[in-house]
User: Which sequence fits this backbone?
């Protein structure tokens, strides 16, 4: 494992001043209290008192003594000098002309303020802290270096050499990593390890290994793509890795190994030592089993949405084709209604006048046309959904047989419908008997039930898919082995863990420890607010409630626009005048020139080679995605970096 992981900024600032301390740092580390002044005033000569005071502040701030006090920033020197009543900081040049003086003063400060060297007991304590952080997290070594530096300064341990600390951190991280390899490689049985090793082999007649195939997720939204995603999940599940006991292995480290396995080459894994190879394969299968299930559910969600969208498009096309007939019939009926509303027309002559203008057969035909073509207000193109049943049949068996859903209390009805359809999957009957009807909402009733009130298989299945999607998004229905579609309650602190953290969590959120008090407080707040709204509702001119339609509608008048003061208008004009007119493309490239953000995009294989003009390509893709304009407006065939 590499030892030299420090950035140049860290190397420069370790045990040295990297800039002038701010006011807060000056007050915290360089302020001299009465105890400090008494210790400093025991030294003879202003130069010695000044030097000792600066050494004391440096060891507090930097964690070490400086060999050259001239490196101390000027603001620090004047801050300390004013506390000592010194008018000239130039006397620092005559301090410690003998090296022995500086060493003696440093020894006095160590004894007086109990500063210690980085010896065995303290290195052991720091090693335990760093090992714990390395084991439970995936923090960068440079971050651990800053953590160790802060811990040493806090506990008054003089900083060792930078190489000593970096070597210690590298050894600890390597120990934690080796322990992780050993723990993971010891989990599977010999039979499972043999099966895992076959992932790295290329079967006869194939160009890729199963390992590479499992790394690739679905790329299309279709029934066959969903079936392939479920097969991928089932094949990974067949390894039985999910049945192993991963207790005590930090999830962050586990996911990091799996992510690493998803990027590196299969051949590189095959060349690894046996325990490391087994550990990576275990983490890969366990993580990608969950990823495969999430991918399958993502496709299902998008597929149901796509089917509904296709039905809506089809319904809109049909409606456009029939609008002429509907308008013709509606106009004819409108003329009939106009005759009825004509007060000069006698009632006994009304029917004869209507039939004289519109024959009975024509009126009956117009009424039938309106009933056939008009759509109710809550119609969501369910009729056209029935035509999509052929697409549903392609993935329905996989959905009902290979995926096991769990239900929260609110998803009980959806779960019962799922189990009912799964039990009758092999049946070829077009009508269902004793089907759970709690999932059937009013818009679906005319499709689920036929004219005799019987439940149709097509309508019920499509109604179930619509309800399933809604329940999945609400997490009323969930999957245990999923990450994105799991039960949110499972991620909450429970049992002893919750009791141990309950006080801290409640205080941080500002909630009382007793849940009944919190609920009673919300009830009182809601009751008071409701009564205030009810009392002021009749006199509130900004609110209108219309009860004439089938559904009540509430209209709230927006707030009046606030006039901008002339000073703000003038300021906006001045700012606009100062800003040059540039294209977005130029602006993005200029930001890169100042910040270099595009250089932070790296290849997924972690290789360092970069194509020529990659910065221009990255900025073009970012602009196309951010503006939602696609790549076409940015493609220029004469510019190599802007080709497709």
Assistant:
């Amino acid at each position: 494992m590499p030892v030299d992981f420090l950035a140049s900024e860290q190397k420069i600032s370790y045990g040295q001043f990297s800039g002038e301390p701010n006011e807060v740092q000056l007050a915290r580390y360089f302020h001299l209290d009465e105890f400090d002044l008494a210790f400093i005033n025991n030294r003879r000569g202003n130069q010695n008192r000044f030097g000792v005071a600066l050494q004391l502040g440096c060891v507090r701030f930097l964690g070490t003594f400086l060999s050259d006090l001239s490196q101390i920033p000027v603001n620090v020197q004047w801050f300390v000098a004013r506390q000592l009543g010194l008018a000239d900081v130039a006397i620092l040049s005559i301090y410690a002309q003998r090296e022995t003086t500086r060493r003696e003063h440093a020894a006095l400060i160590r004894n007086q303020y109990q500063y210690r060297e980085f010896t065995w007991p303290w290195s052991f304590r720091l090693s335990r802290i760093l090992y714990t952080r390395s084991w439970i997290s995936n923090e960068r070594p440079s971050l651990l270096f800053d953590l160790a530096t802060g811990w040493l300064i806090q506990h008054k341990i003089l900083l060792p050499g930078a190489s000593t600390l970096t070597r210690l951190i590298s050894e600890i991280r390597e120990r934690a990593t080796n322990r992780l390899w050993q723990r993971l490689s010891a989990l599977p049985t010999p039979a499972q390890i043999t099966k895992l090793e076959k992932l790295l082999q290329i079967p006869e007649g194939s160009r890729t290994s199963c390992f590479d195939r499992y790394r690739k997720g679905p790329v299309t939204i279709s029934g066959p793509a969903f079936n392939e995603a479920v097969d991928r999940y089932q094949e990974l599940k067949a390894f039985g890795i999910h049945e192993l006991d991963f207790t005590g292995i930090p999830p962050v480290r586990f996911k990091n190994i799996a992510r690493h396995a998803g990027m590196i080459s299969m051949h590189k894994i095959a060349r690894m030592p046996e325990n490391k190879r087994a550990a990576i394969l275990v983490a890969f299968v366990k993580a990608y089993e969950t990823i495969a299930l999430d991918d399958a559910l993502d496709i299902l969600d998008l597929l149901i949405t796509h089917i509904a969208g296709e039905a809506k498009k089809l319904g809109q096309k049909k409606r456009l084709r029939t609008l002429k007939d509907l308008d013709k019939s509606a106009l004819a009926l409108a003329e009939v209604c106009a005759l009825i509303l004509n007060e000069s027309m006698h009632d006994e002559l009304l029917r004869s006048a209507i039939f004289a203008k519109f024959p009975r057969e024509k009126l009956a035909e117009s009424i039938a046309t309106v009933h056939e073509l008009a759509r109710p207000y809550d119609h969501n193109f369910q009729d056209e959904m029935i035509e999509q049943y052929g697409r549903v049949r392609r993935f329905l068996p996989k959905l009902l047989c290979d995926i096991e859903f769990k239900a929260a209390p609110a998803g009980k009805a959806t779960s019962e419908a799922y189990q009912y359809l799964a039990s009758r999957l092999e049946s070829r009957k077009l009508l269902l008997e004793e089907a759970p009807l709690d999932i059937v909402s009013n818009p679906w009733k005319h499709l689920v039930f036929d004219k005799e009130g019987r439940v149709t298989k097509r309508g019920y299945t499509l109604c179930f898919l619509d309800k399933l999607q809604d329940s999945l998004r609400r997490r009323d229905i969930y999957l245990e082995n999923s990450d994105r579609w799991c039960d949110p309650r499972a991620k909450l602190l429970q049992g002893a863990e919750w009791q141990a953290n309950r006080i801290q969590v409640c205080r941080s959120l500002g909630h009382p420890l007793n849940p009944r008090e919190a609920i009673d407080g919300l009830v009182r707040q809601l009751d008071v607010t409701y009564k205030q709204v009810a009392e002021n509702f009749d006199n509130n001119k900004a609110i209108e409630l219309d009860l004439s339609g089938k559904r009540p509608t509430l209209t709230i008048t927006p707030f009046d626009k606030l006039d901008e003061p002339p000073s703000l208008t003038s300021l906006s004009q001045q700012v606009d005048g100062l800003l040059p007119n540039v294209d977005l493309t130029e602006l993005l490239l200029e930001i890169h020139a100042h910040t270099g953000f595009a250089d932070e995009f790296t290849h997924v294989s972690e290789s360092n080679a970069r194509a020529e003009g990659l910065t221009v390509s990255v900025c073009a893709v970012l602009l196309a995605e951010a503006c939602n304009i696609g790549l076409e407006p940015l493609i220029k065939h004469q510019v190599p970096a802007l080709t497709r």
